[in-house]
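User: I would dearly like some help making sense of a protein record. This is the protein in question:
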Amino acid sequence: MPSKAAKKSKRDALKRHGTLNPHPNAVTDPLFQTGDFFDRDDLVQVKYEMLGASQSTSSQSLSPLQHSASPALPSIKRKPTFSEMASSGYCPRSEAPARHKLTSEVLDFAMQLRTSDPSLRPLDLAAAIQERFAINVHPRSIERALRRQEKKRR
């Protein structure tokens, strides 16, 4: 059994990453009652186990499973595959999409760099933005933002 300090540290990490289950006491599945490996505070693990149980119970209704997992979890009308689970948002999404990092100041900087040296690639612009503003922006996000700006100017 983990110590209280280790449990608090893990809860803090889960909260920072947006994966802290808001209703851990609603998880009644026996797997999560031991507290050794299965952690009902870990929203991703609860959802993963819920999906795993739904994959192994081909003819059973999922409603008891959903209620034992957490009332905050989305309902499952049809059983998704593991690959669908990964691509459909069973993990919480980032709160700050890259386009919000590209403020008008950052975008103006990138446009000035591109104007002064048209041979600069988005990867080069991303490095310059990282150096100047201390933010990580994916080169593809920069490329799309610059295209949008060019369309606006036309």
